[in-house]
Amino acid sequence: MISVEHLTKRYGAHTAVDGVTFACEPGTVTGFLGPNGAGKSTTMRMICGLTPPSGGSATVHGVPYRRLPNPGREIGVLLDASAQHPGRTGREVLGLAAQTMGVDRRRVGELLDLVGLNATAAKRRVRAYSLGMRQRLGIALAMLGDPRVLILDEPANGLDPEGIFWMRGVLRDFADRGGTVLLSSHLLREVEAVADRLVVIGGGRVVASGTKDELLAGS
Ligand code: ADP
Ligand code: ADP
């Protein structure tokens, strides 16, 4: 469960996020939709405790991210797939994270399979990965600690159509087992197939929210 209330972020005179309120329930995928610069990343960074809000609050299971006893195990986060360690192989990135998080290393192989990175890909350095492969690795990293909540910023960016189809299945399955997913995109087609609910943001404000059926009726 993610709860965002009147969340606001100002950079000097510029208000990047302006009183945003929404909730994401267990068992659902919430699509967070808006054009570039709308405030999606800033909102997600505030939920994950990486950017301090200027006002309002964001909680996960009723607690601010930074006060969760084990945030890495509770919430899987993919904020910028291009930011992963370029000099390490995919397997190393996951192996090191598993070690840090106290996750059984066998989980690394399972996740490489789940996200479709084969043995050859897993042995290559991340700097040689396409953006789509980095997104797959980022999703594996986000799921490594078996979290109950996933926060994914533009994970479909760089994925090919087959990858988007694959991701839809993974996220659907995660939500159907009681997980909570917040998934951002600037493209409706990337979220509409998987999202149950949509939160549409523009200029830092929520301009529409509701079930996908409510919002897309008549469109
Ligand atoms: P989105 O993820 O929807 O593309 P962002 O949250 O990245 O949007 O950005 C929202 C607005 O806030 C944009 O106008 C962006 O330029 C601005 N912004 C984001 N981060 C900063 C920052 N660190 N300093 C100043 N402005 C920022
Ligand atoms: P995204 O594509 O995820 O929305 P951006 O490309 O907008 O991200 O921003 C990348 C990074 O630059 C982020 O850390 C963001 O906070 C920062 N940033 C974005 N806009 C500005 C800005 N106008 N001034 C300073 N930093 C910014």
TrEMBL record:
UniProt keyword Kinase present: no
Keyword Nucleotide-binding attached: yes
ABC transporter domain: residues covered: 2-219
Domain of life (superkingdom): Bacteria
Keywords: ATP-binding, Nucleotide-binding, Transport
Family: Belongs to the ABC transporter superfamily.
Protein name, entry field: ABC transporter
Species, as recorded: Phytohabitans aurantiacus
Lineage: Bacteria, Bacillati, Actinomycetota, Actinomycetes, Micromonosporales
